[in-house]
Write a structure and sequence with these properties.
By secondary structure, the protein is of the alpha/beta class. The chain has two domains: 172 residues, Rossmann fold; 85 residues, Pantoate-beta-alanine ligase, C-terminal domain (Pantoate--beta-alanine Ligase, Chain: A,domain 2). α6 packs across α7 and α9 runs antiparallel to α10.
Length: 271
Amino acid sequence: MKVVRTITDLRAEIARWRSAGETVALVPTMGALHAGHIALVAAGLAIADRVVVSIFVNPTQFAPHEDLARYPRDEAGDVSKLAGAGAHLVWAPSVADMYPEGFATQIVAGGAALPLEGAFRPHHFGGVATVVCKLVSAVTPNVALFGEKDFQQLAVIRQMVRDLALPVTIQGVPTVREEDGLALSSRNAYLSDDERYIAPMLYKVISEVARGRDPQDAGNALLAAGFSKIDYIEVRDAETLAPFAPGSGRPGRVLAAVWLGKTRLIDNVAI
């Protein structure tokens, strides 16, 4: 497995694969890899000849008050995990490579980007859409894989690909969870032992909302269990993220963002 840092080296490797008639899957990550990321690699290996994993902590999706500086980073450990998982290439560009001096173009994400996370982090999905567009443009994959754990992100990326007619298939991969139900996340490393004990309650209550429990009642239960703040627990259309219409025959999703101490956790389940 090779590690490359420039678009020139990246494209040289991909051109060699293309000349041999091979298909390419892209797994975009911000590093601090866990079993959820490895599941994305495995899914890519199942549907493509080659898997490229990008490692880039994207500054444009963080607001000034958010955790960019302390976001966990472990490139050496990540590379070791990816080699063991069978990935073929790691692309780990620098911020200067991705956003060179004078960079002035950004995607404005609407539609699925506006509610939920969009209301609490209005800068976020513009940064996500811009960096994913750049990653896809550089790698030119046949398919790009994203975890369903960041379900709104997945919806926004699907919308962007459709709206801009990008020649790539977007594949969602089911959330990987700990045995107690906690969704795997790089930010779980921020949790204290006591918080980690409480954290699985989030999955429990949103699963109950999917079965009909009132979202406000579920939020009150989380606060009583020790969560510090509820940003939202809402039932939405799984494709558009508009308010869910029961009886419409359309798929629904329960999405939540909550605070446990100083750590913000997100999760979702299908209805």
